[in-house]
Specification:
Oligomer: single chain
Structural class: alpha/beta
Radius of gyration: 16 Å
Distance between the termini: 40 Å
Number of helices: 2
Length: 127
């Protein structure tokens, strides 16, 4: 039974989001191109890359403990777990289309769309 009067040591803040990938170098280059950021950072421990973000960190991870060492790689997101923000949903959609990104939806309610990364993860862009 929980005691709601006890202060939790867990902060109510997201520090980062992990994205499972199969090839850390390929994923780093793809995400950096799509997000328009530098890929100069180091790959950590042979399987992690921290994308330079404005907000909570996005961590690309080959996930050796969670299936990254098997041929098919770690399990992918089958439902968007988070969203990338945009001020212009139409320009973002066209940019992704122009860059050959697999778009899974059209723009919905003039606010969002879903795409698939090269590893099969479903992700979202929202206005």
């Amino acid at each position: 039974m929980s005691d709601l009067n006890v202060q939790s040591p867990i902060k109510n803040r997201v520090g980062g989001v992990f994205i499972p990938v199969r090839d850390i170098e390929k994923a780093r280059d793809w995400y950096c191109r799509i997000l328009g950021v530098s890929s100069d950072g180091d790959i950590l421990f042979g399987h992690l890359y921290l994308l330079p973000m404005d907000g909570p960190v996005v961590i690309l991870d080959q996930m050796p403990m969670w299936g990254g060492n098997v041929p098919e790689g770690p399990p992918t997101y089958k439902t968007p777990a988070f969203m990338f923000q945009t001020d212009d949903i139409y320009a973002s959609y066209q940019f992704m289309k122009n860059n050959g990104v697999e778009l899974l939806t059209e723009i919905q309610s003039e606010k969002w769309f879903v795409f698939r990364d090269p590893d099969g993860n479903l992700l979202m862009v929202c206005k």
